[in-house]
Amino acid sequence: MDIEKVAEAIELDAGEVLPELRQSLLEMQEHKAGRTTTPEQLLVLSVREQLSLTQTAFAKLIKTPVATLRDWEQGRFKPQGGVIFLLNILKKHPEIAEENF
């Protein structure tokens, strides 16, 4: 399997760069137990990275404890519907973050 070709196709379909995708594909190819990444994890992480914020700054922006944000990014818990909605808005309109809610 051509990992780069598969990764490019997945990212094209997703419409975004997916962090650690190539590493996951390599682990899959080597039949290693890989980690599972949820769409919610990817959303939280991608929005935070898009805004170029640290976990602390992003948690403050969305008025959430840093520990909760870490749990979402590490997949221990999923953010609730209202948070998902907010993250999708920030993803499509990052300029809103400048208003600091």
Set out the fold topology.
Layout lengths: L2 H12 L6 H9 L9 H12 L4 H7 L4 H9 L6 H12 L9
Helix pairs in contact: 1-2, 3-5, 3-6, 4-5
What attributes does this structure have?
single chain; 101 residues; mainly alpha; 434 Repressor (Amino-terminal Domain); 2 domains; 6 helices; globular
Give a description of the structure.
With 101 residues, the protein is an all-alpha fold. The chain folds into two domains: 1-35, no CATH class; 39-99, lambda repressor-like DNA-binding domains (434 Repressor (Amino-terminal Domain), Orthogonal Bundle). 60% of the residues lie in helices and 0% in strands. It has six helices and no strands. Helix 1 packs across helix 2 (21-29) and helix 3 packs across helix 5. The longest helix has 12 residues, at 3-14.
What structural class results from the helix and strand content?
mainly alpha
Number of helices: 6
End-to-end Cα distance, whole Å, is 46 Å
Task: Tell me how many strands there are.
Answer: 0
Number of domains: 2
Would you identify the CATH architecture of the largest domain? Answer: Orthogonal Bundle
Query: Any idea what the CATH superfamily of the largest domain is called?
Result: lambda repressor-like DNA-binding domains
Order of helices and strands: HHHHHH
Per DSSP, what share of the residues sits in E-state strands of 2 or more residues? under 5%
Radius of gyration: 15 Å
Shape label = globular
Mean pLDDT: 90
CATH class call of the largest domain: Mainly Alpha
Name the helicity range.
Answer: 55-70%
Poorly predicted regions: none
Main sheet record: none
CATH fold node name of the largest domain: 434 Repressor (Amino-terminal Domain)
